[in-house]
Write a structure and sequence with these properties.
This protein is 42% helix and 17% strand. The protein is of the alpha+beta class. The protein has one domain: CBS-domain, CATH 3.10.580. Helix 5 (90-100) crosses helix 6 (119-142).
């Protein structure tokens, strides 16, 4: 099954974002408080200028021994951000993630970041699709509706 990203977007999602002058330590605090693995970096005009992920923290801050209390996000964020719109399919987003070795993709509508789709979101969606297909096949094979999906 092909699922549009708009079906995966969480209702009432608030994009977790920081500014370019936010320190890494502050951004990590936001990530921990919000229980997310990435933050979007927006400039003063609310324009997407980067993304900062756990991977960026490890590769660009911890490994080189930078001080997270003094280094600004703009120095260590990923500034070449791959985005999708809400009409992209889960298959397209997964292919984008695989091709570019990324796990977080901002969903942009009319220039505004609406949400961030993670690999976990994509896998959850695919798992739900597969479970539905299996249930339908089980119902067909047993010649009765499968318990989770009454007729």
């Amino acid at each position: 099954m092909t699922t549009r990203i708009s079906k995966i977007l969480r209702a009432s999602t608030r994009v977790i974002r920081v500014g370019p002058k936010t320190t890494v330590l502050e951004a990590v605090g936001v990530m921990m408080t919000q229980n997310v693995a990435s933050v979007i970096v927006l400039d003063e005009n609310e324009k997407l200028i980067g993304i900062f992920t756990e991977r960026d923290l490890l590769r660009r801050v911890v490994a080189p021994g930078l001080d997270p209390a003094t280094i600004h996000i703009e120095k260590v964020m990923t500034d070449r951000v791959h985005t999708v719109d809400q009409n992209a399919t889960s298959e397209e987003v997964r292919a984008l993630m695989e091709n570019h070795h990324i796990r977080h993709v901002p969903v942009v509508v009319d220039g505004a970041v609406m949400d961030v789709i993670s690999l976990r979101d994509i896998l959850r969606c695919e798992n739900e699709d597969k479970t539905f297909e299996i249930d339908q096949l089980m119902g067909y094979v047993s010649n009765k509706p499968y318990p989770r999906y009454p007729a």
